[in-house]
Here is the input.
Amino acid sequence: MDLQIKVEDKYLIIYLTGPVDARSAREVEESLERIISYHQEKDIIISLADVRYMSSSGLRIFISLKNNLIDTTQKLRLCALSEPVSRVFDVTRVSELFDIFETEADAIKDY
Here is the structure.
């Protein structure tokens, strides 16, 4: 798992790469929480274009993250879901819980 960030005026873009499964879930969650808490004034866009596999542990991370942001002013958007990840979100209906955009540009344009 690799995680890169790009900081813009109003938002923070986080790029995840690699599988998000039981093995990497704790590291991913801790990294996301640390980065997001450091940038509390920014909305969050997470790109999943380079995540080729996501287990239920990965889904739990995003659900938990969304729940943690409920009492803040931060918004969470997901974008560029790879085909396998998109299928997992759709089959489990977790996609209904999130603002999901086809591309990073679409997620940014909506601000």
